[in-house]
Structure formats: structure tokens, C-alpha cells
Amino acid sequence: MPYALALIDFDAGAVVPHDLAAAHLPVEDLTVHRGEGIFETALVTVDPASGAPRVHGADLHFARFRASAQALALPAPPRELFDKAISTVVEATLGDADEFAVRYAMSRGLDSHADAEALRAAGVSTGAHGWVFSASVTAAQKAQRADGIRAVTVDRGYPAYIGESAPWLLVGAKTLSYAVNEAASREARARGADEALFVSHDGVVLEGPNSTLVIRRGDTLLTPDPRAGLLHGTTQRAVFAGAQEEGWKTGYTDLSVEDVLAADGAWMVSSVRTAVPILGLDGTDLPAQSELTARMHAWIRAR
Ligand code: PLP
Most CB within 10 Å of its CB: which of 208, 238, 257, 263? Predict the structure, then answer.
């Protein structure tokens, strides 16, 4: 399958298709050494009848991208250029797969030590710039949608609602500094689980390293309040929109680990894996809800 890349030069207002396998990011780029950038990952599905691709939650993703840029004091990302680059990459990727991921990012630009003139002469953009590329949805990611996962709680290391007093922690921004999230997932696997669930230092359940928690309590779906210190998920919002249309109640609230253990069902939801049932937390089984999981998959794919 021909995964693709397009680079976006803001100054030139240009989208340049690029060879995904070739070198394209100068090592002085601030995303490389500082994680000084932001990103989004969206699911693309291909309509089996018409062959038309659909980027799910496109507006919600771009709104969050814009908010992340603001949180890092980056220039506002130009929507038109990103849309053009996303279309370029999606068109180039269309082939056999019925779904894939599209990932876009923006960097603050190059370190001040870079030889900016030489780089510009070589056609490299030295200011803020962006890129878009496609990636596969792996067999393991697809399998989790039906098979579910077992999770363990891990301490996030700060209290809930820390963002209000310490905005420089950038909670709620989707930055390219994901080393902590990756470390939490590794810790979960080292403990024999599939995934981690972050809990604030004072006991408020937050999110997975790459996903939002949703629980069922009776006829209500609940999710942690993003202001408690987590990313506001686009998939969770798709799930809530679909659920509301079918008469479910939905709400944002503070949840404890005991609330999750007592739930009628729990899921980790995110753009690429979509809705993944949590079948165990810290060694305690949670009820499987295959019908509701299937409804969630439908709600997500409808948006
Ligand atoms: N929380 C974190 C930390 C994430 O990285 C992600 C997505 O990657 C999510 C939640 C879920 O967000 P979305 O549903 O928009 O993919």
C-alpha cells in the first residue's frame, strides 16, 4: 500500500508531495530535540460502494490542532494548506485498504543554531512548518476493537485540574512530546496488561496514553472532564453524539477507580482503534458489552 507524505511550507503557501521513505526533516528541527510541535491523527475510511474516502472528525481534529498551537504559542496553522495536504496524502494512499490513518503535525521550526540561509537555499523551510502522512491501521489495533484489552492504573504524577494553575504543563494540548505516554504503556505491558489508565495523584481517573475513557452506568455514558487534566477526545465526542441521538444520557464528570470498577462497561476510545472494550482493570474483570461496543463503532464511523 502506497503510504504518502506531503510537506507544508507556510511562507511559500505550498504543499509539496514528498517521498515518505526519503530524508525530509533537518536534525535541527525543534520537534526532534524539544518535542516543540503538535499533531493530530485521524481515521480515514473508504466507502466500499463509491470508493470515496472520509476523514473522520475532520473539524474536531483541526479545532483541537488550532487550540494546541495556541497553547504552545505557535502560529495559527493555516487550515486551507493542511486540508490540501491531507487531500493530497489521502488520494495518494487510496488503494486496497478500506481504512488507514492520516497524521498531521506542525513544528516551531529550526533551532537558532541551524544554518538557516544554507537550509533555505536547499529548499528547506526554517520557520514554522507542517507535514501530513498516512499510516496503516495495524492488525493488532483492529483486533482490539473486538477482543478488548486489560488495563492497569498508573499515577499521572500530578493532581487533577493542575492545568488551571500550571498551564505550562500543556495538559489538553496534543504535543509531540509523547515519551511519558509511551513509558506508561510500557509500564502497563511490563505488568502484564495491554494498556495504562492514568489516574491523577489525588485519585481522579484521567485517560489512556492515547485514548479517552468512557464508562457505562445504567442508561448513561460518562467520561472524565477534560479540565481535570486530559485531552478532549474527538472519538469520545463522536460516541456521545451518536449515543444522544439514540436516547442515551451522557456526561462529563470526575470518576474514581472504584467508579470504573463498578461500571456496567468501560471503553478506551480513540481515532484509530475507535472503541476498545476494557475487559479488566487492575486484575478485576469488567462486563463485556458487545452490543454497545458495536453501536459505538457505528456512531464513530458515521461521523
Ligand atoms: N488522550 C490522549 C492522550 C491521546 O493521545 C488521544 C489520541 O491519540 C486521545 C485521548 C483520544 O483522542 P481522539 O479520540 O481525538 O483520537
Answer: 208
Which residue has a Cα nearest atom 8 of ligand 1? 210
Nearest residue (CA) to ligand 1, atom 10? 211
- Whether ligand 1 lies within 6 angstroms of the CB of 107 is answered as no
- Ligand 1 within 6 A of CB of 144: no
CB 9 within 8 A of CB 133: no
Atom number of ligand 1 nearest to Cα 236: 14
Shortest-distance atom of ligand 1 to CA 181: 3
Give the predicted TM-score (pTM) of the model: 0.95
Domains within the chain, CATH numbers bracketed: 5-137 (3.30.470.10), 141-301 (3.20.10.10)
31 pocket-lining for ligand 1 (C-beta < 6 Å): no
Å from CA of 116 to ligand 1 middle = 34
Q: Residue 247 burial by CB count (10 A; 0-12/13-18/19+): exposed, middle or buried? A: exposed
Q: Give pLDDT tens digits for 16-66.
A: 898 888 877 888 899 998 999 999 999 999 999 999 999 999 999 999 999
